[in-house]
Amino acid sequence: SDSQIQAVVNQIALALIYIQNKGFYHCDIKSQNILLHGGQVKICDFGLATSGAKNKVGTPNWQAPEVLRGE
Asked: Catalytic residue positions?
């Protein structure tokens, strides 16, 4: 239902805000790296995560064309 989808999206947003407030950037958010477990959202695969300044990294197939062009 719409309310369930909204709850999942809110949990993802809150998780990303939490991570960024700690000074980290996941850099590879995509559907494969978001797990649903017992009604909770879990973000996984921090292999490309970085601290400090945002980097232009991630899975190329999921990046915007302008990022891949360096714009």
From this structure: 28
